[in-house]
Amino acid sequence: MKILVSIKRVADPDNASKLKVTSDGTAVTSEGLEWKMNPFDDWSLEAALRLTENAAEKNARVGEVVLVSIGPNDEHTQRIIREGLAKGAERGILVESDDGNLDAGVVSAVLKAVVEKENPDLVVMGKQAADGDSNVAGTELAEKLSWPVINAAMRITTADDGKTLEIRRELDTGVATVKVTGPAVITTSDRILQPDSVQNGVTPEGHEYAKLEVGGRYASLKGIMQAKKKPIDQMSLADLGVDTAKSLNYTKYELPPARSGQTTFVEDVADLVDKLHNSAKVI
C-alpha cells in the first residue's frame, strides 16, 4: 500500500499569545514564533504508518508513506519533513510556495498534481490546519480527483492492502460506519491515536498500540539518523502546472481587544444577569 500524507509547518498553537499583526492590519507576522508540524497532520501520519507496517515485528514496513509539504523552503519546513521521515515515512516532497500564496483551493490543486505523479492508494490528511482551520482542503482534493472522501476518521480497518476499507467517522450526533473502495481521501480526528484504531490485515488483530495522548509516535534515534539519508524531492508550483489564483483572500487582521483586568463584584444572581444583559450585552 502506498499512502500520500500531507504535512504543514504551523506556528506552535501553544504560543498563540505571541502572534502579532502589522500596523496596517494586512498580515500576521511570524517574528518570534516557534514552528512545528500541524498537530492534525501528525495524527494522519500516525494512521498512515500503522496502515503500512507489521507492528508485531520491529521496523517491519509493508508499504510506503510519502510526505508532501507545501510552503517555504526554509529550515522549519525541512525540519518537519525530516521529523516525519524519522518516524518512519520513506520519502518526502517539498512544493515551494509562500504561505501568503496559498488557500485550500491552491493546496488541493497542488496535492492533485502530486497524486497524479505518485499514484498512491490513499491520501491521508489532517482534518484541518491549526492556523487556517478551514477544514476543506481534503474535501476539495477528493472532488478534484473524483475520489470518495471520509472526514474525521476515528477508526480504519482494511485487509486487502487498502483496496477496500471500513471507516468509522465522528459526527456531531454520534459515529457513522462507512465502507469505501479505494483510492480515497481520508482526514483523521485525534481518536485515530487510540491503541486499536487501525487494523491493516497484517499486524495481528489482537495487537494494541501504546496509548498516545496528544500526538503520534516519537522518532527513535535510529530513525533520526536514517532520516538524514532519505530523499526529499523539491519542486515549485510552476513545475506542477498549478493555477495559483486564490479564491479566498483576507482583507484585514485584528487582535482581540485586551482585557481591562478590572473585576466587578455583584450582590446576587439577579444583579449578575442584569450586568451580563445590559452592560456586557452577552446574553
Describe the structure.
Strand 8, helix 2 (75-87) and strand 9 form a beta-alpha-beta unit. The model has no long low-confidence stretch (mean pLDDT 90). The chain is 25% helix and 27% strand. It is globular, with a radius of gyration of 21 Å. It has helices at residues 39-51, 75-87, 104-118, 137-145, 221-227, 237-240, 269-279, and strands spanning 2-6, 9-11, 20-21, 28-29, 35-37, 53-54, 60-61, 64-71, 91-96, 122-126, 149-157, 164-171, 174-181, 184-188, 198-199, 232-236. The strands form four sheets. Strands 1, 8, 9, 10, 11, 12, 13, 14, 15 and 16 form a ten-stranded mixed β-sheet that branches. A two-stranded antiparallel ribbon has the order 2-5. A two-stranded antiparallel sheet has the order 3-4. The chain is built from seven helices and 16 strands. The chain is α/β, with parallel strands linked by helices and 283 residues long.
Q: What separation lies between the terminal Cα atoms?
A: 53 Å
In DSSP terms (H or I, runs of 4 or more residues), the helix count works out at: 7
> Which structural class matches the secondary elements?
alpha/beta
Major beta sheet summary: 10 strands, mixed
| Strand content range | 25-35%
- SSE arrangement, N to C: EEEEEHEEEHEHEHEEEEEHEHH
Mean pLDDT equals 90
Radius of gyration: 21 Å
Please tell me what the overall shape is.
Answer: globular
| Count of individual beta strands | 16
Query: Could you list the spans in which at least 5 consecutive residues all have pLDDT below 50?
Result: none
Q: What percentage of residues falls in helices of 4 or more residues? A: 25-40%
